[in-house]
Amino acid sequence: MKIKILYEDSNILAIDKPSGILVHPDNTNKEKTILDLFIKKYPKIEIVHRLDKETSGVMLLAKNKKAHEFLKKQFQDREIKKIYLAVVSGYMKNDRGVINKPIGRSPKDFRRHLAGRGARGEMREAITQYRVLKRFEDIKGNKFTFIELHPKTGRTHQIRVHMKYLNHPVACDSLYNPNSVCPLGLKRLALHAKFIEFKNLKREIIKVESPLLKEFIKLQK
């Protein structure tokens, strides 16, 4: 699989991750990962942050330990700006909002996380801003909302969990919205990492954008 590189310098790669590929190996899966695809060319490559397997879009990789620590600190200090696009089930009532709800573990399914009542384990701060771009129906009358999201923290499944908490789960999400109708001919999670802004090791501000999914382009018309 050939992965498109959106930005590269001597320390950092920004790639356009396709949907359907793991970022790094897990104990239950032996398929090729993003790490596997780049480690031969860049033996010291390290994952800086992760995208879920079914999420597509821009993602940062560090070519060495110094770059990894430099970028990690930016994430920890919340200096890195990220923008996601998603299609969620139903019509969202408010045009804008902030979801400030800690995330813990689901007591019923070890794969899932949970915000609000019933969450177990350590509750970690999670903040997501959102803005409605468009509300629409498919030809069968199923309602959806196209939204832009700005996660201020980086918890596992954060956007998916927060949208589930609002009762507007991400469309085509087999884990958090298993009975979802998929809009726009999508056959994958309707979540895309559109944009990231960070500083490189020269302290220059770098802005990287991933091309939109063709289904999302239709919604912008």
Write the layout of secondary structure elements.
Layout: E1 4-8, E2 12-17, H1 34-39, E3 46-47, E4 56-62, H2 65-76, E5 81-89, E6 96-100, E7 103-105, E8 113-115, E9 120-124, E10 127-137, E11 143-151, H3 158-165, E12 191-199, E13 205-209, H4 214-219
Parallel strand pairs: 4-12
Antiparallel strand pairs: 1-2, 2-4, 3-4, 5-11, 5-12, 6-10, 7-8, 7-9, 10-11, 12-13
Q: Can you offer a commentary on this structure?
A:
- The structure is a single chain.
- With 221 residues, the protein is an alpha+beta fold.
- It has one domain (4-219): 2-Layer Sandwich (Pseudouridine synthase).
- The chain is 14% helix and 36% strand.
- The chain has helices at 34-39, 65-76, 158-165, 214-219, and strands spanning 4-8, 12-17, 46-47, 56-62, 81-89, 96-100, 103-105, 113-115, 120-124, 127-137, 143-151, 191-199, 205-209.
- Strands 1, 2, 3, 4, 5, 6, 10, 11, 12 and 13 form a 10-stranded mixed beta sheet that branches. A 3-stranded antiparallel beta sheet has the order 8-7-9.
- A hairpin with an 8-residue loop joins β3 and β4 (56-62).
- 34% of the residues are buried.
- The mean pLDDT is 93.
